[in-house]
Amino acid sequence: MTVASRGRIDKRQAILAAAFTVFARRGYAEACVKEIAEEAGVAKPTVYNHLSDKENLFRHAIEAAADEVMAANLEVVERLREPGEDLRATLEDVAHRLVEVCCDERSRSLRRLTYGQVARFPELIDLVQARTADKVAEALADRLARLSLAGRLRSGDPSVASEQLLALLTGPLETRSRLGTREVPAAEMRAVSDAAVDTFLSAYAA
Amino acid sequence: MTVASRGRIDKRQAILAAAFTVFARRGYAEACVKEIAEEAGVAKPTVYNHLSDKENLFRHAIEAAADEVMAANLEVVERLREPGEDLRATLEDVAHRLVEVCCDERSRSLRRLTYGQVARFPELIDLVQARTADKVAEALADRLARLSLAGRLRSGDPSVASEQLLALLTGPLETRSRLGTREVPAAEMRAVSDAAVDTFLSAYAA
Amino acid sequence: MTVASRGRIDKRQAILAAAFTVFARRGYAEACVKEIAEEAGVAKPTVYNHLSDKENLFRHAIEAAADEVMAANLEVVERLREPGEDLRATLEDVAHRLVEVCCDERSRSLRRLTYGQVARFPELIDLVQARTADKVAEALADRLARLSLAGRLRSGDPSVASEQLLALLTGPLETRSRLGTREVPAAEMRAVSDAAVDTFLSAYAA
Amino acid sequence: MTVASRGRIDKRQAILAAAFTVFARRGYAEACVKEIAEEAGVAKPTVYNHLSDKENLFRHAIEAAADEVMAANLEVVERLREPGEDLRATLEDVAHRLVEVCCDERSRSLRRLTYGQVARFPELIDLVQARTADKVAEALADRLARLSLAGRLRSGDPSVASEQLLALLTGPLETRSRLGTREVPAAEMRAVSDAAVDTFLSAYAA
DNA sequence: AATGAATGAGCGTTCATTCAT
DNA sequence: CATGAATGAACGCTCATTCAT
């Protein structure tokens, strides 16, 4: 890759990052391209050179953020590949880490923006859900299925189990963080993830 | 109350209803006051006479919708006052009805608008959450507490139980309805509510 | 007609007049709506309230000007209804008056704008030609036909005669005024119209 | 001339030709330099290297086109040097050929562009008129003068005769082609040129 | 000399809001 | 009180022009 094209790609990513920041700060309609350009340190037409218009800019910024969130979530779920001796402890650890990812600024902004712009960008919902909620639910279902096979969880539909464990984590957090508006104290995060694992194991432990 | 002032109140409510409809259709920034005025059948300055500006209009429209959603939810939870013989059946009925309310157009629009406008109207989150999620969680906790006392549920923190039951209902629905974008088939709604009750009773049955 | 609606119509006409002035001064693309608004003494959005966009503004301004030019031309041709004793003198008078109309600022701007915007407004050509060139050619043909019947002109196709008389007037003027750019001295105008009538009568006198 | 500078000149001419094409297609203001560069197969800054800015580009493109149109017209008029036996036939032939040149795409675009941009490029009018209308009028006047001397046309001011013959040709064509917008059928072109010669000879035959 | 990338300036259009009736 | 009309402020987008390579 040449130095020039490398610079071009860097600039494109800088613009996408700036766009996500500004969209997150203001919302789609309230964000103005000028502010995005300033945040990225380029002139307004440069934004248009790289990403043809505001809608495109939004779509790509969301898509890039969704990829990052997906990666962070999958990395956490992978930890269940080595469940160790103490299954409850491992689940609590994973649950807690999922909660942390789910509560971080980027995840919350992504959900908020996607959700708030369903009317204008209906197709983004599928894209974002596929890369975040769906993907992590599937990965988790895979792990739970293996745990069932290994006799450490009751047998049954691992998709439902996965869905419910995630619901027990994210549901209370949405409420307690006021839809991602307020920081959730560490202790509360721990309480929620532990309670979720507790209820989950009541229902699904072998 | 005089006939005249009665008419004034009617017009105000017509405007608020129209505002909610249009905001739900377009989103806050994309909705224009002209369209709201047309939907309400009045002239634009009339809107300004009744509700000083667009922000105010939004706040009051959201508030009114939140009141309606709250009432619908509480009515459902009240059914747990008479749990009857078959607790599982009663919970399944209540759970299913909550799912229905939660999936209806108005609830979804309310969540979407509030969520999408956190940046501009941060205070609305508290107002809406207090009247919807919090209120129903409390009412449900009240009912669960009574059921514990009556020996029909294990004793423990009824708030956590309430929170988890609601999470088991709304979490999966958010995913399956693609954040309220897609209709959820009746069968799926039933499956979700039954699975929620099942897991809930695994953890909380006496 | 109410005073209010009268005022509205006045304002619309003021905007159209200002638009024609500015378009004539700058050309279509170079004219900016802001300048038109200033020329009309209103704010920019007022222009958009009355005439939905720039293209519409242009079309209506051109149409109005075409109407005025048409009326002026027809009034001149009408003079041939009373040819009087001295046909040559009457024709010279009419010819000279047509030349005057054809050379005035408004006619020239109208032709220039229409001509210059064929690519963008192809339908305007027909509209303008119908109301100016065609209409005056027909009216003139009518008069010439009567003169033939009255035995004062040779018989023949009056349309061709009309077309040629007008060509003998406008052709030399286009050249001498540098496509309407330069004032044509009164003496030259007279020379052109007299020469045209002379040639015309050589070919068409009874 | 070196091969290199020869290539440079070729590129310059390619740019001028592309510019005329694009200006003719879109009009001056609507044409963008990017499109001209693409039409010429070069990059945008190359256009600026060869012709300093858009105005210059326009001027030179127009000038080049005017030269070509002039040459085509003069070639036709030269045919009157050998009038042959049948003067009417020769005049009809020349008239018809002039009509053809006058109706071709390039001539029409040239007139349209020049005419439409009088406001911005007032000096172009003189340049173009001098090379087209004036030049052909003069050349034609020269031929007519010789024909007068030879006793084949009445004596008199050959400039006026030339001007009127050209007016009788171009005037009706402007109308019938809707200012160059519509194709004029071959039969109509013939009718116009024959009628022009007929009237011309009525007035000017010896 | 030629180009990909960047930019400053400007324009059409919209919209929340306010007058005047 | 209700309304038709008017406006100031923004914003998305384009384009001629210039750097840097």
Automatic annotation (TrEMBL), chains A, B, C, D:
Q: Which UniProt keywords apply?
A: DNA-binding
Write down the Gene3D superfamilies for this protein, in alphabetical order.
Homeodomain-like, Tetracycline Repressor, domain 2
Give the residue range of the signal peptide.
none
- Which stretches are labeled DNA-binding? 32-51
SUPFAM superfamilies reported for this sequence: Homeodomain-like, Tetracyclin repressor-like, C-terminal domain
Q: Which InterPro entries match?
A: Homeodomain-like_sf, HTH-type_TetR-like_transc_reg, HTH_TetR, Tet_transcr_reg_TetR-rel_C_sf, TetR_C_Proteobacteria
User: Could you confirm whether the keyword Isomerase appears in this record?
Assistant: no
According to the entry, every stretch annotated as the HTH tetR-type domain falls at 9-69
On whether DNA-binding is a keyword of this UniProt record, the answer is yes
PANTHER family given in the database record: HTH-TYPE TRANSCRIPTIONAL DUAL REGULATOR CECR, HTH-TYPE TRANSCRIPTIONAL REGULATOR RUTR
What is the designated name of this protein?
Answer: AcrR family transcriptional regulator
Species, as recorded: Amycolatopsis magusensis
User: Mind giving the lineage of the organism this protein is from?
Assistant: Bacteria, Bacillati, Actinomycetota, Actinomycetes, Pseudonocardiales
